[in-house]
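Attaching the record inline, Q. Sequence:
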Amino acid sequence: MAGNHWETVYRRNREDEVSWFQSVPETSLRMIEALDLEPDARIIDIGGGTSRLADGLLKAGYRDVTVLDITAQALQQSQDRLGERAGLVEWITADVATFQPDTTWDVWHDRAVFHFLTTEEARAGYRRTLGRTLRPGGHVIIATFGPRGPEKCSGLPVMRYDPESLVATLGADFTLRHTELEQHTTPAGHQQEFLYCWLQRKDRGE
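Structure, as predicted:
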């Protein structure tokens, strides 16, 4: 059902018409750059859809970028935008809650998915995938709607978080390293409060 919803959203709207559009995802790129990663660090963007994060990561010199989204329509739009550079990115159409990768990543980025998970079952599936996907010591950069964010987005109910509730929801396997709030201006001119958190997965010895 959720996949059908998002397929419809991306069929009916241009990339720059959806409320979450960013011409440049400055906060995400800055937080990833602050990790001081090697160029071959493995980075996955969860719910990346038509986000321009992949564009920015390629421009910054990262060579192992993956974008996962539940809708192939959104991924195709990104591939069309990137043109020949699309071949430098791995594209995965999957529901993150049931995704079963056979590899791990160094960085998990999500600005699109977690706040739409309004049931504990969905959040548990997300946590299971995160646990399988992120290497010990790896980094999570996650942005959700903040305490004063909207209660609905794209016609769907959403969750709002502060740093404490987000950490509690993700579990004791993660240590909060940094957090900040961002006022995002939608294409329609509305303000939405986003909470950005950088967390690090504990090494197995911790």
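The mean pLDDT is 91. Residues 2-201 form a domain with the Rossmann fold fold (CATH 3.40.50.150).

More tomorrow.
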